[in-house]
Amino acid sequence: MEAPSDRHGEPEPLVPEGIVTEPAAPPRVTAVWGPAGSPGRTTVAVNLAVELALAGRRTLLIDLDTYAASAGIHLGLLDESAGIAQACRTADQGGISPEGVGRAALRARVAGTTLQVLTGLTRADRWPELRRAALDGVLSAAAAGWDEVVLDCGFCLEEDEELSFDIPAPQRNAATLAGLAAADRILAVGTGDPVGLPRLIHGLDELGLHVDTVERSRVEVVVNQVRTDASGVAPQSQITGVLERFGGSWTVGGFLPWDRRALDRALLGGQVLAEAAPKSALRRAVARLAGTAAGGLQTGPATAAVGQGLRTLLRRS
């Protein structure tokens, strides 16, 4: 039997009578941000993107950190070109489509699935290549072409580059600000220790200047590296109490346990948690953050041989 056609001539799929199909989740852009001090922004962004890809969502990871891009290192990618800069050049030359973004992205085979990655700047002094207008075009095209777009953002939110110029001034932090503006969901990552928690609270105050009160539902606080040694007995309860008292009306989206051993194993091998530590509590917590069950724990082939992460780092230095 031939499938009926719609008005555009495309065949409509036949659904057996009595079968109710789940509507596909709408496309989503998630920005992973956090204050200074290495709270784990890239670790969360990379592994979140992998979990979404494992769930069957076409996923694009974009490294927007103009200070210390490292998403490629986490994935053991050896490509020296900055995919985000290439995409911005295309956007500057007359606009960019999802296909154009795809041509600038690398395909990484991780944990038995495929993840596309727009790698970050190879040197911090290349930040002027990422103009705000071009970035907006790239992010718009990415949102139109993928089910999930995960943005690994830098820490700084300052806009002091916009001084009195006859033309728009370049912005060092334009990439992060563009990412936050384009996101449907913002994960604010901080640590729960005595240094990291105050930084997170002050950072949330600054983030509030860029996110309207009505839009605060887009923001979820993610507390990383949670452990009793740094936060005391019942650390989640203590951290929640501090955030409620000093952090304002922000939603706590999740707590990620401290697992240095799993993270070291992943970095050394150029792997992700789904490969290096598939049954770890940290991997399960990231999967919950992604909204996936991580039930079918997939180990898959390693993305690179042991030591690939270190070799990638040395090659880029």
What is this entry, summarized?
The chain is an alpha/beta fold. It has helices at residues 41-54, 71-74, 83-92, 98-104, 132-145, 174-182, 196-208, 228-231, 235-246, 260-269, 273-276, 281-290, 308-316; strands at residues 28-33, 59-64, 106-110, 113-118, 148-153, 185-191, 219-226, 251-257.
Protein model, in words:
The protein is globular and about 55 Å long. Helix 4 (98-104) crosses helix 5 and helix 5 runs parallel beside helix 6 (174-182). The protein is built from 13 helices and 8 strands. Mean pLDDT is 85; it is low at 1-22, 295-307 and 309-314. The chain has 317 residues and is α/β, with parallel strands linked by helices. 38% of the residues lie in helices and 16% in strands. It has an 8-stranded mixed beta sheet, sandwiched between helices. Strand 6 (185-191), helix 7 and strand 7 form a beta-alpha-beta unit.
Furnish the topology, listing elements before pairings:
Layout: E1 28-33, H1 41-54, E2 59-64, H2 71-74, H3 83-92, H4 98-104, E3 106-110, E4 113-118, H5 132-145, E5 148-153, H6 174-182, E6 185-191, H7 196-208, E7 219-226, H8 228-231, H9 235-246, E8 251-257, H10 260-269, H11 273-276, H12 281-290, H13 308-316
Parallel strand pairs: 1-5, 1-6, 2-4, 2-5, 6-7, 7-8
Antiparallel strand pairs: 3-4
Helix pairs in contact: 1-12, 3-4, 3-5, 4-5, 5-6
